[in-house]
Amino acid sequence: MDTRTHAAAATPGETVRVAGWVHEIRDLGGIAFLILRDGSGKIQIKFEKEEMDDDLVETGLSVHRESVIAVTGDVETEERAPTGVELVPDEVEVIAEADPELPLDPSGKVEADLSTRLDNRTLDLRKDEVKAIFEIRAEMLQSVREAFRSLGCTEINTPKIVATGTEGGTELFPVTYFGREAFMNQSPQLFKQLMVGSGLERVFEIGPIFRAEEHNTPRHLNEATSIDFEAAFTDEQGAMDACENIVRAAYGGVAENCQGALEALGLDEEFEVPTERFPRITYEEAIERVNATGELDEQLFWGDDLSTEAERALGDDVGSHYFVTEWPSEIKPFYIKDHDDDEELSTGFDLMHPRLELVSGGQREHRHDRLIEGFEQQGLEPEAFEYYTKMFRYGMPPHAGWGLGAERLVMTMLGLDNIREAVLFPRDRQRLSP
Ligand code: AMO
Q1: Is the pLDDT reported for residue 67 higher than 60?
Q2: DSSP 305
Q3: Which end of the chain is more exposed for a tag (fewer CB within 10 A), N or C?
Q4: Same domain, residue pair 214 and 86
Q5: How many Cα atoms are found within 13 Å in the side-chain-facing hemisphere of 226?
């Protein structure tokens, strides 16, 4: 059991045993300070060389930085100490000595590039501002889960090894499954849809998705975390309402419970929970607005996807989260329903942060025959998806949903430059370990 006193809880007048990492040793001659760091913060340990046992001083001051030690002693008030208290040691125990040469400086005095940091993530995460990202990520996931529960959703877990892809054939990772070809799942899309036709009706999943993206970009991962929602008896408008609710809850939870982490990132003053309703702009209006900015070398035409430059121009123009609705049917996947009165228009939508896309979603095609036609139009063989299409013959209600990239949410929330900052151990073209 963890019987130590946390650094932040050490109170003057107490005798305590603290344990953690040697953050820094400052030797001023007759007096020396060791700064010990643990999960709660830091505490100064004072060594008065003339007055203390030689072995104690020797042990305390010769230990290498980042070693794990335990120190027992009396806590005293000391206004000049960084936290206003210091510990006068009676005993120093070296629990796990660190090598003198470290691949990365956790005190942050020596800067390291992202690749070195990711290679040595354990040491990197000893920095307050890096640890803060993952505390915020955890809080975000917790708030999202709670918000889904209050929307009446059941959390599900669906297979990650699957027989077919859903999000376009080129981005699949093949695996061998007992001699048969299988793939890592790109999205829980088909499984979550099958659940709205079950007794569960409203579901969410938070889990990994795998995309064999060919290019390294600051916004793509080969393994990402998708926050997925799907609900029966709703349309794309209802799905967008739920999406707004969840994104707002994520920001709200972080604002309420992560003040320390936001401070460590220097964001405590500027962090804002979006309160205004996210504008819903049609695709047609979006391309008109992009063209009107004059930021693009070439004009956009109906049927074009929004390029990174177009997203940026529109994001600057709108200035907040916004939805793009009514995309052309031809650029949305087979499972997205077309508008009843105009087959060229889909019910698909994207939620955009001014910097990048966060969410795709829409109302789904729940009519069996139309679904089969959609497969054929997209050049997919409906037979391979029979496990899915078959259930549309046994009572599948109208439904809608979306998928939100967890890392992109953290990235945009905290203004991170690279999506890898929001993943403990990112997977990209170069990176398969750690
Ligand atoms: P889509 O493919 O647009 O839609 O993915 C949904 C959201 O997931 C995130 N995302 C990624 N994040 C990082 N790296 C990647 N390679 C990556 N790929 C996707 C993005 C994106 O907006 N089945 C549909 C969702 C639905 O309709 O319910 C889907 O997967 O934030």
Answers
A1: yes
A2: P
A3: N
A4: no
A5: 29
